[in-house]
Design goal:
This protein has 685 residues and is α/β, with parallel strands linked by helices. It has three domains: 44-141, Nucleic acid-binding proteins (OB fold (Dihydrolipoamide Acetyltransferase, E2P)); 175-441 and 634-685, Rossmann fold, CATH 3.40.50.300; 445-601, 3-Layer(aba) Sandwich (Rossmann fold), CATH 3.40.50. Helices cover 38% and strands 18% of the residues. The chain has a seven-stranded parallel beta sheet, sandwiched between helices. A six-stranded parallel beta sheet has the order 17-22-21-18-20-19, sandwiched between helices. Helix 9 runs antiparallel to helix 11 (292-305). The protein is globular. The two termini are 41 Å apart. Bound molecules: adenosine-5'-diphosphate and magnesium ion (MG). The site of adenosine-5'-diphosphate has 15 residues, from helix 11.
Length: 685
């Protein structure tokens, strides 16, 4: 049978079952055989009862000696029986499965698999799995058993049977699209072998070979797809001309600080882009406080002195206003017309600003989402910048770029992503990294404490405030919640007001407040009119209050490491020693490990790498919104080496584009085209 035939062609798969399979993305035979196991269990072979030792897992066949009986013990129902073979007897116990009483009869032969332990000095198997004949085909010899991800209505057995009959039906029909040259150079087995062996591996070596081939393919097409996109969509000829450099050079000279060499390097790259043959599509990745704003500001100046407009979009009003202040400070030696465009402006103010923008009376627009609204039209927009890009959707970034005629695009991110991951995630952008903090930054002393330190923490807050400093406290929830006992902003604030001396000024902030209220509170804190700001993570983004020296994070284990790092970055922005206190009662090993990483390092790239290693890529802040595809079999962390290998191959192919037209690449080209159509739509930066 052809590999693209629907699975209903297989005997045993009717309409109803096919619908269930469709829910997990399986329509064709090829879909079915590329539905890969997520893990494997080792078949263990039969044991005799006398061979059973505590803590081992055993497969045992025996005769039921007594009808099972149930009894209630505290919250659970225990169901027990005993089985025997000709070498001995052993007890079996299950939790909360009283129906087994009906299912198992005295004298019946059963096969069970489970872990042995002592109970009342006698060996027993606890919660053993009762195996059916179909299971036994897998368990009774020592092969490796595939375990597939399931959906309601489909069990392991159903998938195994379906995969087996599909494999048989398409025997010898799986074409290998990878040219022999690439296959051999990278020591990869054939596609058909790989697919067969990933379902039925004879041993670990074979399984590893199979995975390596399939993972390689996933990474290869993904990266090649991105590279192709980058060329097709983004490489538009440079529409602009940036000859004047005087204002730029002057500003550079008069900056209140010397740029770090990382900042210089990134500026170089930006200027090369802006003067290059194609328009810029660049991501600046830099840790919190690494000084991305000044880099953006210099690019803005370059545009402005050549007669072009720029726009910078930030996720919050406070941040936009802060940018206005810092740009005004930097732009002393050049006469730039800067205007703010934010949601809280009145209709009239907005319309006035729209008109000025359209007439070219404004050089730089700083704003929030307000800048991508319909009425906003530019006269000659050449540079669009998005700050804190992870706070914006792809669509919003596109709208912004759409405000100009193929403008240069600069995107800034304060979420450090491990380099190799950045390589694939932002494969369609050029990436600059600011991997150096301005000199003289004090490290933020970080502590992890549990609830028993609460009084000492309170005393510490009071002490910092007496010294004239300010404090952030972050809670995971907005209001009290019945489902969990996590700290919430509202009751926490009330409690603090009672517990701390009355002259300490405390306010709260959360995402459900009206934007106007939020801004006012934020600004009062920034002006030093508040001592403590109790907040959800809304303060995570970019805000700069140098007088704040204390960051306290409640239920800290509930946050991602990248997020904790961002939050911590809110302090340590002035000359005073700053502190971050992570309060966590997490007892889990993982939770403790994550907290320890925060005390170990202040390097966002390091933290992101560790976060990735322990949690996988799914939860990394910002990645979810970025449209990161989920791979079928590849794992970005564990398969990093294969990723690099595939990257090299993708690069070679994309550089020598013509080879795709050669006969040996025909199948490959078709597969790539197909892949681009079905998988690449998500990426639209
Ligand atoms: P981020 O990269 O997090 O956006 P900012 O651009 O807000 O960081 O910069 C953080 C602070 O560091 C600002 O107060 C800025 O003026 C200052 N800064 C930036 N570059 C330098 C430098 N090279 N030397 C000293 N201070 C710098
Ligand atoms: Mg910033």
């Amino acid at each position: 049978m052809e590999t693209n035939k629907p699975i209903t062609e297989l005997s045993g798969i009717g309409k109803k079952k096919a619908q269930l399979f469709e829910k997990i993305g399986i329509k064709s035979l090829m879909d079915l055989v590329t539905y890969y196991p997520t893990t494997y269990e080792k078949g263990i072979g039969y044991s005799r009862i006398q061979e059973v030792k505590p803590n081992g897992t055993y497969l045992i066949q025996g005769e039921i000696m007594v009808a099972p009986y149930s009894k209630k013990a505290r919250q659970v129902i225990l169901t027990s029986t005993r089985i025997k073979d000709d070498t001995g007897e052993i007890g079996l116990t299950w939790f909360n499965q009283p129906y087994l009483q009906k299912q198992l009869k005295e004298g019946q032969m059963i096969t069970v698999m489970g872990k042995a332990s002592y109970k009342y000095e006698k060996l027993q198997l606890t919660s053993p799995k009762i195996l059916t004949q179909a299971d036994l085909n897998y368990y009774d010899d020592k092969t490796i058993i595939p375990i597939y991800p399931l959906t309601k209505g489909i069990n392991q057995k159903a998938i195994r049977l379906a995969v087996a009959s599909a494999m048989e039906a398409i025997n010898n029909r799986i074409e290998d699209y990878l040219p022999d040259m690439i296959r051999e150079a990278n020591e990869l087995i054939s596609l058909e072998d790989a697919i067969y062996q990933v379902h039925y591996p004879q041993n670990d070596v074979v399984l590893n070979d199979a995975r390596r081939r399939l993972v390689f393919d996933e990474f290869l097409f993904f990266q090649l797809g991105l590279m192709m996109l980058k060329d097709e969509q983004v490489r538009i000829e440079n529409q602009y001309n940036f000859e004047c450099r005087k204002g730029y050079e002057n500003t550079l000279k008069k900056l209140p600080f010397a740029l770090t060499s990382a900042q210089y390097n990134v500026l170089d790259e930006i200027i090369k882009d802006m003067n290059g043959s194609y328009n810029m599509n660049r991501l600046i990745q830099g840790d919190v406080g690494s000084g991305k704003t000044v880099v953006a500001a210099l690019a803005i100046i370059l545009a402005a002195e050549n007669g072009y407009q720029s726009v910078l979009m930030a996720p919050t009003e406070v941040l936009a206003k802060q940018h206005l202040q810092s740009l005004e400070k930097m732009f002393v030696s050049i006469d730039l017309r800067i205007e703010l465009l934010v949601g809280s402006m009145t209709k009239k103010e907005k319309v006035d600003t729209y008109q000025k923008i359209e007439a070219g009376l404004i050089d730089v627009v700083l704003g929030t989402h307000a800048v991508i609204q319909e009425g906003v039209n530019f006269k000659n927009l050449a540079l669009v910048i998005t700050d804190e890009q992870h706070r914006f959707g792809v669509a919003q970034r596109e709208l912004l770029a759409g405000k100009g005629h193929y403008p240069h695009v600069l995107v800034m991110s304060g979420t450090p992503i491990p380099r190799t991951l950045g390589l694939i995630l932002y494969g369609d952008m050029d990436v600059s990294i600011i991997d150096e903090l301005p000199p003289g930054r004090k490290s933020i002393e970080t502590f992890v404490v549990n609830d028993s330190y609460r009084n000492r923490v309170k005393a510490f807050i009071a002490k910092e405030i007496e010294a004239g400093r300010q404090c952030y406290i972050v809670c995971p929830m907005v209001e009290e919640n019945e489902e969990n006992d996590l700290k919430d902003v509202l009751s926490y604030t009330e409690k603090l007001k009672v517990e701390l001396p009355p002259h300490i000024r405390i306010e709260y902030l959360h995402g459900q407040m009206r934007p106007k209220e939020k801004n006012e509170t934020m600004e009062r804190f920034a002006r030093g009119e508040l001592d403590i700001l109790v907040s959800t993570t809304v303060i995570e983004v970019g805000i700069n209050v140098p007088n704040a020296t204390l960051m306290i994070i409640e239920d800290a284990h509930r946050f991602g490491l990248a997020q904790l790092h961002q939050l911590r970055g809110r302090v340590g922005r002035g000359g005073n020693q700053s502190y971050c206190i992570l309060i966590s009662d997490s007892q889990s090993v993982l939770g403790k490990k994550r907290m320890a990483i925060m005390t170990e390092s202040q390097d966002g790239f390091y933290i992101a790498q560790k976060d990735l290693e322990i949690r996988g890529h799914g939860d990394l802040l910002g990645l979810r919104q970025s449209g990161m595809p989920t791979f079928k079999i590849a794992n970005i962390v564990e398969d990093m080496e294969i990723l690099k290998q595939a990257h090299l191959v993708a690069k070679t192919i994309s550089e020598k584009r013509d080879i795709l037209q050669e006969a040996t690449y025909e199948n490959f080209r078709k597969k790539l085209e197909n892949y681009m159509e079905t998988n690449m739509s998500f990426i639209a930066l």
